[in-house]
Amino acid sequence: MFDIKLQGIDIDGEEKTFSLVDYKDKKIVVYFYPKDNTSGCSQEACDFRDNINRLTSKITVIGVSPDSIKSHLKFKENKSLNFILLSDTEHKLAEAFDVWKEKSMYGRKYMGIERSTFILNKGKIEKEWRKVKIKGHVDEVLSYFEN
């Protein structure tokens, strides 16, 4: 399920190919978000950014959206992001985690990311949050690790 290879941006802003299997011996936070540089997604990314020192001693943070590498580079630069961003343009990873869902806005239906966060431990889902509300979410993730 997690042996899907995606292009992404590492913490130094370099493009490379990633697979969650590469992290099978570690604990990682994988969070799915709808779109780079939108207000909600920026807030969530900045919350992870601002708490990365509290998180990275325990885990690696990986953000995933259907945006392009070019979009991720701008997002990373605009918000000074300090974690990995993966480009899931074909929704393969989103579908594997069952977060590619039908959504509705102003009566129009479309497919998109259901904001969700997962903690993987040795390649298995240890904890998940679905339909995430941005405000306070990173604190929820942090408190999970503090218990």
Question: Major beta sheet, specifics?
Answer: 7 strands, mixed
pLDDT averaged over residues: 92
Poorly predicted runs = none
By DSSP (H or I, 4+ residues per run), the number of helices equals: 5
CATH topology: Glutaredoxin
Domain count = 1
CATH-level-4 superfamily name? Glutaredoxin
N- to C-terminal separation? 28 Å
Write down how many β-strands occur, each being a DSSP E stretch of 2 or more residues: 9
Strand line-up of the largest beta sheet: 2-1-5-4-3-8-9
Radius of gyration: 14 Å
Approximate shape: globular
CATH architecture descriptor name: 3-Layer(aba) Sandwich
Structural key phrases:
single chain; 147 residues; alpha+beta; Glutaredoxin; seven-stranded mixed sheet; two-stranded antiparallel ribbon; 9 strands; 29% helix
Describe the overall structure.
This protein is an alpha+beta fold and 147 residues long. The chain has one domain (5-146): Glutaredoxin, CATH 3.40.30. It is built from five helices and nine strands; from the N terminus they run βββααβαβαββββα. The protein has helices at residues 39-50, 52-56, 69-79, 92-96, 137-146, and strands spanning 5-9, 15-19, 27-32, 60-65, 84-87, 100-105, 108-113, 116-121, 124-129. The strands form two sheets. It has a seven-stranded mixed beta sheet. The radius of gyration is 14 Å and the shape is globular. The mean pLDDT is 92.
